[in-house]
């Protein structure tokens, strides 16, 4: 039975026009929350997510925002609060993946710099803007990666470091915001079946063998964990880093 554990709450999910972010937005809506989300492009996909959210009987709002631009991120947060009149849950899902081995003269340094701006700077900007607006007892959940704990391949150091920084920030913010009952946690997914990392890719067989469960995870499995951390049963969980990786790091 769906208890609508988030009924009356307002959530903002960044980067939710597809993949993990879209699954999170739809799951929070299914739990009763009104959901705003940001996207960088593809208004058609964003409209589809709006429709899926509204099908749960709650309100939806899609906002175009460049997560690398702290001014745009702050404006997005303020728009959500003004539109719904409150903000209870912030999920930092927007992120990009760029590779480059250290010392490689062919590495795309601009792409690596933008990755840092989005994966770290965008999260910091969203949290800084949200903190004055978040309800006491609110929730902040950031989507990291299991690469922040273990780096099994070359060339992903910048990506891994960007997500490790988010986990460290979350632990610190948990201390900063504990007096207000605001919890701050990080989820570190392993291989998840998305367009960017499909379970049918050339490397899928190898990746599956690296997990204890022998399979990719699905976006909905990440969304379920976010819904739990955003809900009332997780009120005493903060500063935590939860690996959801099928046992890849076991």
Automatic annotation (TrEMBL):
Classification via InterPro entries: KR_dom, NAD(P)-bd_dom_sf, SDR_fam
SUPFAM superfamilies attached to this UniProt entry: NAD(P)-binding Rossmann-fold domains (SSF51735)
Ketoreductase domain ranges (all copies): 9-195
Gene3D superfamilies tied to this protein: NAD(P)-binding Rossmann-like Domain (3.40.50.720)
Highest taxon of source: Bacteria
Protein family membership: Belongs to the short-chain dehydrogenases/reductases (SDR) family.
Protein name per UniProt: SDR family oxidoreductase
């Amino acid at each position: 039975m769906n208890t609508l554990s988030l009924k009356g709450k307002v959530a903002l999910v960044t980067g939710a026009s597809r993949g993990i972010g879209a699954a999170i937005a739809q799951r929070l809506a299914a739990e009763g929350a009104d959901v705003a989300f940001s996207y960088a492009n593809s208004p058609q996909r964003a409209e589809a997510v709006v429709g899926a959210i509204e099908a749960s009987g709650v309100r939806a709002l899609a906002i175009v925002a460049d997560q690398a631009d702290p001014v745009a991120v702050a404006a997005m947060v303020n728009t959500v609060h003004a539109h719904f009149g409150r903000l209870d849950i912030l999920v930092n899902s927007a992120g990009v993946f760029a590779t480059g081995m250290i010392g490689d003269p062919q590495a795309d340094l601009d792409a690596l710099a933008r990755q840092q701006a989005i994966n770290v700077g965008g999260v910091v900007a969203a949290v800084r803007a949200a903190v004055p607006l978040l309800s006491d007892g609110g929730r902040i959940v950031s989507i990291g990666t299991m690469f922040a704990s273990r780096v099994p391949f070359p060339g992903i150091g910048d990506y891994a470091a960007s997500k490790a920084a988010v986990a460290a920030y979350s632990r610190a913010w948990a201390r900063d915001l504990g007096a207000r009952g605001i919890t701050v946690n990080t989820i570190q997914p392993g291989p998840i079946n998305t367009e960017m990392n499909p379970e049918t890719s050339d490397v899928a067989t190898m990746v599956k063998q690296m997990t204890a469960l022998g399979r990719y995870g699905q976006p909905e499995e990440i969304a379920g964990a976010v819904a739990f951390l955003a809900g009332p049963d997780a009120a005493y969980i903060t500063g935590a880093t939860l690996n959801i990786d099928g046992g890849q790091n076991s």
